[in-house]
Amino acid sequence: MPFVNVQTIKGIMTAEQKSELLRRMTDLLVEIEGQGDPQFRQSVWIRIDEHDPEQWSLGGVQPTATMIAAKFAAARRD
């Protein structure tokens, strides 16, 4: 029985994106670990934990919500 814990920054993903992530990760685990057995789906646990931006550090910098929003806005434009 696999248990996957996704750690992410609060507010980055919409509810729809989280649902899609959960669905795709489940499908992948069924395909690989469950060897395609549809019954294996019932054994897959996935949890998304969201944390405030200030609880993260990247390269020694603690990002603010504004910094993260700006970074993702720039990535979407590219």
UniProtKB/TrEMBL annotation:
* Keyword Isomerase attributed: yes
Q: Which domain of life is it from?
A: Bacteria
Q: State if Mitochondrion is listed as a keyword.
A: no
Q: Keywords assigned by UniProt? A: Isomerase
Among Pfam families, the record links this protein to: Tautomerase (PF01361)
SUPFAM superfamilies, per database record: Tautomerase/MIF
Domain 4-oxalocrotonate tautomerase-like stretches: 2-64
Coiled coil residues, start to end: none
Identify the InterPro entries for this entry: 4-OT-like_dom, Tautomerase/MIF_sf
- Provide any one GO MF term from the record: isomerase activity
Family to which this protein belongs: Belongs to the 4-oxalocrotonate tautomerase family.
Full protein name: 4-oxalocrotonate tautomerase
